[in-house]
Design brief:
alpha+beta, 118 residues, 36% strand, elongated, GTP Cyclohydrolase I, domain 2, 3 helices, 4-stranded antiparallel β-sheet
């Protein structure tokens, strides 16, 4: 089973250069968690699955802490998801940084990190 949250938008202060950490930028986060349900999914109980609201909260918390690299942000998100959902078999986090190059016409830069249990 896979639960995904796509297109979560944040304004944050991640960036290698001091002006990026001062001015901030728009980011889009996509998260995908693959897992085997811990209980019977037919019980219609949120405890038997991954709660995408909690995925959003994890991303939101990490986006509030400025870092130089979005790779570091993605790794922190993965680590928190692993801690919250120990039954996760695979986690993928993609972060897009909109308009990453000041003065250059680019849509976004992105990083994708993956975790695979075992």
């Amino acid at each position: 089973m896979i639960v995904a949250l796509n297109g979560a938008e944040f304004f944050a202060y991640h960036g290698f250069y001091p002006e990026e950490q001062k001015l901030g930028n728009c980011f889009i986060v996509d998260m995908e968690v693959e897992f085997t349900p811990t209980g019977n999914i037919n019980e219609d109980d949120l405890a038997n699955t991954v709660n995408y609201e909690q995925l959003y909260d994890i991303a939101c918390e990490e986006m509030k802490t400025p870092k130089k690299l979005i790779e570091t942000v993605a790794e922190a998100i993965i680590n928190k998801i692993k801690k919250q959902y120990t039954f996760a078999d695979r986690i993928e986090v993609n972060i897009k940084k909109l308009n990453p190059l000041v003065g250059a016409k680019t849509k976004y830069s992105s990083v994708t990190l993956n975790y695979q249990k075992g």
